[in-house]
Amino acid sequence: MKAYKIPEATVMRLSVYSRYLYQLMDDGVKSISSDEIARGVGVSSAQVRKDLAYFGEFGTRGVGYKVDVLYGHLMKILGLDRSWNAIIIGAGKLGSALALYEGFNTRGFIIRAVLDNDPERIGTKLGNVEVEKLDVLAERVQENNITIGIVTVPASAAQEVTDKLIHAGVKAILNFSPRVLKVPNKIILRNVDLSVNLEVLSFNINFSK
Amino acid sequence: MKAYKIPEATVMRLSVYSRYLYQLMDDGVKSISSDEIARGVGVSSAQVRKDLAYFGEFGTRGVGYKVDVLYGHLMKILGLDRSWNAIIIGAGKLGSALALYEGFNTRGFIIRAVLDNDPERIGTKLGNVEVEKLDVLAERVQENNITIGIVTVPASAAQEVTDKLIHAGVKAILNFSPRVLKVPNKIILRNVDLSVNLEVLSFNINFSK
DNA sequence: ACCTTCTTGTGAAACAGTTAGCAAATAATA
DNA sequence: TATTATTTGCTAACTGTTTCACAAGAAGGT
């Protein structure tokens, strides 16, 4: 694909744009300008155009963008013109919540399995998947062609399950544990640290006065 | 307080450093260099020193940092030398998971109330708080001196509950709904969009081949 | 056909954040 | 006390991202 690097912030904004466009389509809007998108999602219009410019020319000068066409391009760019199989490791509160979160399904992310080691949790149903023992990790990843592993275990177990996921063949890991994970270069890693987010808030409340 | 702006990335890293230092204290480590911190959390040592330099001089040249002292400074900088009262709006799967998440309590964030409008959910217990009707929002915020509102309602209700939170007097909002919220300047807002995170992954898997 | 209005796409400028490198400070050793 | 080995704090260089500003293209009106 394309040669040079896309800023991560750009990718995140594309995701936001795509959802905004979806909403517009729902409302029956056919055409939109970069300025309207910008106001809708809270960035500058130059930012919107720059972000899109990484991938091509999708608009018409003097006119704007066709909502459905741009939406289609964005979904393709984000890799959402297909579905992705994912597995959740850790069936605690957060893991369970994510397993049942509709927001993933509606964007094409399908949770194929949820694993845990706690006997209390094994066998319980989360939507239409049943919590299974950690042992079946490699098996489930391979038989379901799972590319994304979601880690929601305590910090102490995070590196271990991550290693197992990588060994089993996942390409990307979304880590919710408050632990810095070591992964090979070819593995795509993202960290979502819930406490960090609250702490940025408390810093800002504190600091702005 | 301080005059010039701290990068958000710096604040996030400070939070990560602080947790790493806590772990070190637990392990009985007394002193540490920026290089060791750097390797522990996966950044460069120059980055660590730069981040700390925004706030003062906490180390000793030729020696390093005293773990407990640096930890104390970081906790104070992050505003974690006190506790913060928070409220969760939306007792769905995610809201419930957050209400029960120990990671918040251990860092001084106390969930004082969880509200929802669904009669099915009202009255259910989440740990030691009971889900209540949305009506009591202003009352709960004021009587508990709540500064942080956590929004876990569907996108369609997000702006409305946000407005209510602001009106009731919260200073900061952590938004988990996939919706761009409009808030006054003085309100501190952070968005944690779970789908965006997965979509950055799918983009990267897609794009890197 | 020409003029006016609109809005994209893009190079250049401005800004922000990260990395590099080194002087200054400390401790240990002889 | 001098020497050596460390490691911070800080400035400067670098790299990356965002904003600016405008030429180019499109549509509608006259």
The shape of chain A is: globular
Distance between the termini of chain A: 48 Å
Instruction: Give the chain pair forming the largest contact, with residue counts.
Output: A-B, 60 and 59 residues
The level of helicity of chain A is 40-55%
Q: Largest beta sheet of chain A, briefly?
A: 7 strands, mixed
Q: Given the structure, what is the number of helices of chain A?
A: 9
Q: Looking across the biggest beta sheet of chain A, what order are the strands in? A: 5-6-4-3-7-8-9
Oligomeric assembly: homodimer
How much of the sequence lies in strands of chain A comes to: 15-25%
Structure, described:
The structure is a homodimer of 209-residue chains. The first copy, chain A, is α/β, with parallel strands linked by helices and 209 residues long. Chain A has two domains: 8-77, Arc Repressor Mutant, subunit A (Orthogonal Bundle); 84-196, Rossmann fold, CATH 3.40.50.720. The first copy, chain A, has nine helices and nine strands. In chain A, the strands form two sheets. A seven-stranded mixed sheet of chain A has the order 5-6-4-3-7-8-9. Chain A has a two-stranded antiparallel ribbon with strand order 1-2. In chain A, helix 1 packs antiparallel against helix 4, helix 2 (34-41) crosses helix 3 (45-53) and helix 7 (137-143) packs across helix 8 (155-168). At the A-B interface, helix 1, helix 5 and helix 9 of A face helix 1, helix 5 and helix 9 of B.
